[in-house]
Amino acid sequence: MSKIYIYDTTLRDGSQAEEITFSVEDKVAIAHLLDDLGVEYIEGGYPAPSNAKDLEFFKRMKKHPLRKAKLVAFGSTRRAKLKVAQDPAIQALLDAGTSNIAIVGKTWDLHVRDVLRISLEENLKVIRDSVAYLKSHRKRVLFDAEHFYDAYRSNPEYARQVLEAASESGADWIVLCDTNGGTLPPELERITAESKARVATPIGIHTHNDSELAVSNSLAAVRAGATMVQGTINGYGERCGNANLCSVIPNLQLKMGKLCLPPKKIKKLTVVSRTISEIANVPPREYSAFVGLNAFAHKGGLHVDAVRKNPVSYEHIVPPVVGNERRLIISEQAGVASVLFKAEQMGVKLKPGSEEARQIIGQLKDLEHSGYKFEGADASFRLLMEKSLKQHRPFFNLHGFRVIVERRENKLVTEATIKLDINNHHVHTAAEGDGPVNALDNALRKALEPYYPRLKKMQLVDFKVRVLESKSGSGANVRVSIESRDERNVWGTVGVSTNIIAASWEALLDSIEYKLRSDRKWR
Q1: CA 36, CA 262: separation in Å to the nearest integer?
Q2: Cβ count near 431 (within 10 Å)
Q3: Cα dihedral sign, 308-314-319-321
Q4: Regions of the chain short of the pLDDT cut 50
Q5: What are the domain boundaries of the chain?
Q6: How far apart, in Å, are the Cα atoms of 29 and each of 35, 55, 61, 126, 347?
Q7: Can you tell me the distance from the alpha carbon of 228 to that of 119, in angstroms, rounded to the nearest whole number?
Q8: DSSP readout, 55-117?
Q9: What pLDDT, on the 0 to 100 scale, is given for residue 167?
């Protein structure tokens, strides 16, 4: 396997996404996650005098250094009106204390004339001075040729001169940037090959996703001879994002025979993707290739039957290779094969061709016709199967509940009262909450936690309401979906009713029941 160096810029380019703001602690945590994944280079940010957060990050990293990855400080070439030794931004790069420094320079004559407003020759001098100065301080220098592909189309000779200026001044890497994200793969591959032939310095690629081609363009550049690929986890970045390393890495390593990560590390890709999305406080992209929740999800009965016989029939790789897993989605399209496979995954014993299996499918289709949706509600489906097979053992018996919402001194107050039996004990509790569902949750937990203390480890993390048959107005059925988690698992439940409290209670009850049965299994 030939080596491709992976350069992660999640902490800089990724943080430029509109919805993402990393704290210093977030950045430190992500840097160490990437280090453990086996990424070669981690771009930490822009330690400019005006950027207090990134300055603090580089200080913090001196106390908590990476084990293997190379931390990179990012900046730009010197300002045209300053000598390189007098430029405070250049000095800040040196003060960051990293052995590797990336600087971005202009390659497009349009930018040189209209943005920098200097001559083309002066821009070449700026690049030479900046690279040579950093090299004189014994730094490894990566030169990012900004807007390179636009530059090459506009003035190919000048674009080549920029690369030569960086190379001759000692740059260790030259990274070609499709900054506007508008280049098509065939053209990018051709320009990359022509440019690589012009300089001896190793070539890298940095693509943006404005044409939904960042991953394809990264692979095209590798075919043309690039040996470094830059990108971000989950494709985070400004506008439409950057090349998604969660797709780039497995495509290169599993399909093109290029070594990007240590072979045993690539199976961590899914957990790293989802962990970073949690740190970024951005919902995971369920349809992402390789690492998404739905990347290996099968819904149609024919598909499921084929996957049971030979997974290759509908899967392009084995999911665990990238740390993901096969999912069977139970829906109205499910056949007997789907239910059998799902039961097998959940440890429920169902015989092929059995009457029980057909009954469960019939019940499933009736429920879905009335508005239930078990996609994303595996916990409710598990309980449905156990009840149908008479394997369900209730943990408590409900006598009833009451919810009161009243206005007190310009404030809405909600109180729930619950009566139930637990282990032959009659329990009657009441609790307030921020709305009916929260009040019911609090009252139920108050009743159950003395008997089942591990419920304290469980929390509701998502609550969604969908109105069905909206033409019925306020009398329409509603579907409530709840996502819950504890220290081990995440699970989904569902409830449907014309009464939103009844639907919420059903989903909440399933969530509690599933938690209790899971704890029983782990004892």
Answers
A1: 10
A2: 19
A3: positive
A4: 522-523
A5: 2-280, 297-365
A6: 10, 16, 10, 36, 36
A7: 31
A8: HHHHHHHHHS--SSSEEEEEEEPPPTTS-GGG-HHHHHHHHTT-SEEEEEEE--HHHIIIII-
A9: 98
DSSP 3-state helix, strand, coil percentages of the chain (rounded to 5)? 45, 20, 35
Cα–Cα dist 160/256, whole Å: 29
Among left, alpha and beta (phi > 0; psi -120 to 50; other), residue 280 is alpha
Domain 2-280 sits in CATH at 3.20.20.70
Kindly report the number of other CB atoms within 10 A of residue 369's CB atom: 9
CB 3 within 8 A of CB 242: no
User: Which pLDDT score, from 0 to 100, does residue 522 have?
Assistant: 42
Can you give the pTM of this predicted structure?
0.73
The per-residue pLDDT for range 19-48, each reduced to its tens digit, is 999 999 999 999 999 999 999 999 999 998
Closest CA to 69 of 265, 225, 216: 265
Beta pairing, strands 100-106 & 70-76: parallel
Q: Read out DSSP for 357-381?
A: HHHHHHHHHHHHHTT---TT-HHHH
The residues, any chain, with a CB within 8 Å of residue 273's CB and separated by 6 or more, are: 233, 234, 246, 284, 288, 291
Q: What integer pLDDT is reported at residue 91 of this predicted model?
A: 96
Whole-number pLDDT of residue 444: 94
Angle ∠(75,77,80) on CA atoms, nearest 5 = 135
Q: What is the pLDDT of residues 66-114, one digit of tens each?
A: 999 999 999 999 999 999 999 999 999 999 999 999 999 999 999 999 9
Nearest to 74 by CA among 104, 48, 105, 102: 102
Contact 224, 176 (CB under 8 A): no
